[in-house]
Specification:
Number of domains: 2
CATH architecture of the largest domain: Distorted Sandwich
Order of helices and strands: HEEHEEHEEEEEEHEHEEEEEE
Distance between the termini: 33 Å
Number of helices: 5
Structural class: mainly beta
CATH topology of the largest domain: Glucose Permease (Domain IIA)
Largest sheet: 8 strands, antiparallel
Strand content: 25-35%
Radius of gyration: 21 Å
Helix content: under 10%
Number of strands: 17
CATH class of the largest domain: Mainly Beta
Length: 339
């Protein structure tokens, strides 16, 4: 599990965390937000972390769930890995028309746990952009890739204009863009903008501040399988976060035969079910022990060691399923041809 790091700070000043506005104040000239990232929802990008709507020391997302951490001030749209962010860059774009209030570039892309504290102190947002919108609204885009920022202070931008590229500068534990929304300097949860002060709603419906197509593409999920595959040996958690293709190749003479899954936002008690079929019939049908605590990110696998004979060549199908309260809430289906 990767630690839940501190929430990104405002580029040039300190955020007024935990201060909220009334629904009446929010209703005036509020923007409708489009996606801040060009990606394929639930294929190449996922919501890792929501806004923390608990004003106290606890943490609750807008549906009163656990897909956030204390004082997290925005929404994290994550990518599969750092390598994915650099091999085919993902454009970060303006969620609404606005004027550039502030920019920063030049912060190196380094995962927070490997960064030196002095390198990110006061620059928790990493490379980023703040846009001003009508009637006191702002959007902030954090953790952009070094050298990718394309706008300058005072520049007018239209919705969809490219601001930069997703990265992992600042206090980032994964490649992403972090989007914060503020009104008159106060945090607003774009999924629940009209909620009473510091509250969540397990029955929340509607798009919030999002355009309807964005809300439809990202229905609430608290627990997701973001990747899975067959491999010739156990996966390395840190290696996958750096490069989701960094696995031991599977072939007929591989030392092992492994089916693995990558997960976000697991809850205590969740189980993982692995099933696989191949030329010789059933290869796996196993369910893990319950997860011992909530986990922001997690990798699990099941596998066998090769004895003397090669693995049977041919086609293999596998499924990784996330099981919660006795029911499957997310799956990922994979296949491989062993030669």
């Amino acid at each position: 599990m990767q630690p839940r790091g501190p929430s990104p700070a405002i580029l040039l000043s300190v955020l007024g965390l935990g201060v909220w506005l009334s629904p009446h104040a929010l209703a005036q000239e509020r923007p409708q937000l489009s996606m801040p990232l060009v990606c394929q929802p639930h294929k190449t990008c996922f919501i890792q972390t929501y806004v923390d709507d608990d004003p106290g020391r606890g943490a609750k997302d807008y549906m009163c769930g656990t897909a956030t951490y204390d004082k997290h001030s925005g929404v994290d749209f994550r990518l599969l890995s750092a390598a994915a962010a650099t091999k085919t860059p993902f454009a970060v774009i303006a969620s609404a028309d606005g004027t550039v209030k502030a920019v920063r570039d030049g912060v190196t892309d380094v995962f927070f746990k490997a960064a030196k504290p002095q390198d990110v102190s006061g620059r928790e947002c990493g490379n980023g952009v703040i846009l001003e919108h009508a009637d006191g609204w702002e959007t902030q885009y954090c953790h952009l890739r070094k050298g990718s920022v394309r706008v300058s202070k005072g520049q007018s931008v239209k919705r969809g204009a490219q601001l930069g590229e997703a990265g992992y500068s600042g206090t980032a534990d994964f490649a992403q863009v972090h989007l914060s929304v503020r009104h008159n300097g106060k945090i607003v949860d774009p999924f629940l903008p009209d909620a009473p002060q510091g509250s969540c709603d397990p029955n929340a419906k509607g798009p919030g501040l999002w355009e309807p197509e964005v809300a439809a593409a990202f229905p609430y999920r608290n627990g997701e399988v973001i990747g899975a595959g067959f491999a010739g040996g156990p996966p390395d958690v840190n290696a996958l976060e750096a490069d989701d293709q960094d696995i031991v190749a599977l072939n007929a003479t591989s030392e092992g035969f492994v089916l693995y899954g990558r997960f976000i936002n697991l809850k205590k008690g969740d189980r993982i079910n692995f099933t696989a079929l191949g030329p010789g019939g059933e290869l796996f049908d196993e369910t893990s022990d319950p997860v011992d605590r909530d986990k922001a990110t997690f990798v699990a696998f099941v596998g066998k060691k090769r004895s003397h004979d090669p693995w049977p060549t041919g086609h293999y199908d596998g499924r990784v399923a996330l099981v919660r309260d006795g029911g499957i809430i997310a799956t990922n289906v994979v296949s491989a041809d062993v030669k």
